[in-house]
Design goal:
Elements: H1 6-46, H2 52-58, H3 63-74, H4 79-85, H5 88-97, E1 105-111, E2 121-126, E3 133-140, E4 147-151, E5 155-156, E6 160-161, E7 167-168, H6 170-178, E8 186-192, H7 193-199, E9 219-223
Antiparallel strand pairs: 1-2, 1-8, 2-3, 3-4, 3-5, 4-9, 6-7
Length: about 220
């Protein structure tokens, strides 16, 4: 590499702290948005009938902005994940794509370019016997041997608020844990349930063995 001038080295030295300050400001912005969303969710639950709009005026908050912040908070995404996706607006667009399927649909989650690329994927489908709950299967059909991770019992689709005010979604927690695809590289496809039932129902067949006892209560992994 050619030697660079002292002037360029001096500029590079000034860029580094500026970049770090920008990254820190972005991190704080995301964390503040998540905290505002959590507080708005708490206030919405505590407001009596017809108090919500008055509360928003008192908080100097636009209703549409409040709705977006609450959606972001309820999703249970961490500040690191929001930043990885590309920030607040990108995370909101991500959540639109990641909506859970209706009764006649199922959702596939894979790496961008899937299924043309041979990568692991997840399938989420509504549980017919438990409205608001879902079954999931996460498969790597190109591994040797091919493996499938299948939910043992229906998983609640709605996030649950924790004691500290943050939200936790057990369904997406399992997908994040078992699907080796970063959030920023995920692609979502909604498909008709009947199409999936013809080609992919075997993924939800009863597993032959548990991968480990620690997760036995919620899911099983098995080898095809």
């Amino acid at each position: 590499m050619k030697n660079i001038s002292n002037d360029l080295m001096e500029i590079a030295g000034r860029i580094r702290p500026a970049r770090e300050a920008f990254a820190e400001a972005d991190r704080r912005r995301v964390e503040s948005a998540l905290e505002a969303g959590r507080l708005l969710c708490q206030a919405k639950d505590d407001c009596l009938h017809q108090q919500w709009m008055a509360f928003l005026r008192w908080a100097d908050m636009d209703e549409q902005e409040a709705r977006k912040l609450m959606q972001l908070a309820r999703a249970g995404l961490t500040s690191c994940v929001v930043s990885e996706i590309g920030g607040i607006d990108a995370a909101l667009a991500y959540l639109v794509e990641a909506r859970l399927p209706e009764p006649e649909e199922c959702l596939t989650v894979g790496r961008i370019g899937w299924p043309e690329k041979n990568t692991p994927f997840a399938i989420i489908k509504p549980n017919a016997g438990h409205p608001g709950y879902y079954d999931i299967a996460i498969a790597d059909m190109w591994a040797n041997p091919a493996t499938v991770f299948s939910s043992r019992k229906p998983l609640r689709g709605e996030s649950m608020r924790q004691a500290d005010g943050s939200f936790f979604n057990s369904l997406w927690h399992i997908v994040d844990r078992e699907l080796d695809v970063p959030h920023s590289q995920r692609e979502f496809q909604m498909m008709p349930a009947d199409l999936f039932s013809r080609d992919g129902a075997f993924l939800f067949a009863k597993p032959v063995s548990a991968a480990d006892s620690a997760t036995e209560s919620e899911a099983l992994s098995y080898i095809l």
